[in-house]
Specification:
By secondary structure, the protein is mainly alpha-helical. It has one domain. It contains ten helices and no strands. The protein has helices at 2-23, 25-47, 58-70, 74-109, 125-130, 139-146, 154-165, 173-190, 197-203, 225-249. The longest helix has 36 residues, at 74-109.
Length: 251
C-alpha cells in the first residue's frame, strides 16, 4: 500500500507545483522581458557604442521593473488566481478519490476484510455485461458509484474513509481550509465568484480556519497567491495524513 500512496502523493505534489507555476506566470513574463531588454541594451552600448537615450531601452526596462516592484498587474491576474484555485480543488478531488478506490482495491486483492463485505449491491444485466461479468478489479469504483460517494465534499470523503477503511479523521484547521476552498470553488464556477447562501451554509461549521475567516453573502471571492499557498499546504497535509493511516491500517 505504501507504494500506491506514495505515487498518489507524488502526483498531487507535481500538480500543486504546476499550479504554483501558474501563480507566478506574471513574474516570469516580466523577468524574461527585463532580461531580454537588458541584453539588447548592453549590445547597443558596448558593441554598437550607442549612447543616445532615444535609441536605448533604459526607460522600458525601468517601466517593467516598476511594474514588477509595485505589482501593478495584480488586479488583472486575480481572475487567473481564482481559476488556479478551481484547478487545485480538482487535483485534490482526484487524489482523494484515487486514495479511496485504490485502498479498497488493495484490501480486496490482499484478503483484508472490508466493512462493506456484507453490503448488498444491485446490478442490472446491462451493468454486468458492461463489466464483462468481472467485478474483481473494480471494487473501489463500484462502492463509489453504487453509494454515490462525492469526494468534492469533505464530510462525504471523511465518512467514506471511516465507513469502509476504518480511517478516523478529526476535523481540524486543514480540513476547514479545504472546506472553504471547495465552497469557494463552487461559487467561482457557478455563481460568478460571488459568495451566496449555499457557500455560507457549506462553510458555517468550518472553524477554526486560517483562510478567509470572514465571508458574507454577496462578497466577491478573490484569492491571493499566499492564500492559495495555504490551500496547497492544507491539502498536502490531509493527503499525507490519510496516506499514513491507510498504510498503517492495511498491513
Amino acid at each position: 500500500m505504501q507504494k500506491v500512496t506514495d505515487q498518489i502523493k507524488e502526483q498531487f505534489e507535481n500538480n500543486a507545483k504546476s499550479v504554483r507555476g501558474l501563480l507566478k506566470f506574471d513574474e516570469l513574463i516580466l523577468e524574461v522581458s527585463i532580461a531580454q531588454l537588458r541584453e539588447v541594451n548592453n549590445k547597443l552600448k558596448n558593441i554598437h557604442e550607442i549612447d543616445n537615450p532615444l535609441l536605448l531601452v533604459d526607460n522600458a526596462i525601468k517601466a517593467l521593473e516598476n511594474i514588477k516592484k509595485h505589482e501593478s498587474l495584480k488586479a488583472q491576474y486575480e481572475t487567473m488566481y481564482n481559476q488556479c484555485l478551481v484547478l487545485l480543488v480538482s487535483y485534490f478531488t482526484s487524489a482523494v478519490t484515487d486514495l479511496f478506490i485504490k485502498a479498497v482495491q488493495y484490501s480486496a486483492d490482499n484478503g483484508i476484510e472490508l466493512k462493506c463485505s456484507k453490503e448488498d449491491f444491485k446490478f442490472s444485466f446491462k451493468e454486468l455485461t458492461d463489466y464483462k461479468f468481472d467485478l474483481k478489479g473494480i471494487v473501489g469504483e463500484l462502492i463509489v458509484t453504487k453509494n454515490q460517494i462525492s469526494f468534492q465534499d469533505m464530510q462525504s470523503s471523511c465518512r467514506a474513509f471511516k465507513k469502509y477503511l476504518s480511517v478516523e479523521i478529526e476535523q481540524n484547521t486543514d480540513i476547514n481550509n479545504i472546506i472553504l476552498s471547495q465552497a469557494c470553488r463552487h461559487a467561482i464556477v457557478h455563481a460568478s465568484s460571488v459568495v451566496n447562501e449555499k457557500c455560507i451554509k457549506q462553510i458555517r461549521d468550518a472553524n477554526p480556519r486560517d483562510l478567509k475567516e470572514k465571508l458574507e453573502d454577496g462578497d466577491e471571492i478573490t484569492f491571493s497567491v499566499e492564500e492559495i499557498g495555504k490551500v496547497i499546504g492544507s491539502m498536502t497535509n490531509f493527503i499525507n495524513m490519510v496516506s499514513n493511516k491507510l498504510n498503517k491500517n492495511l498491513t
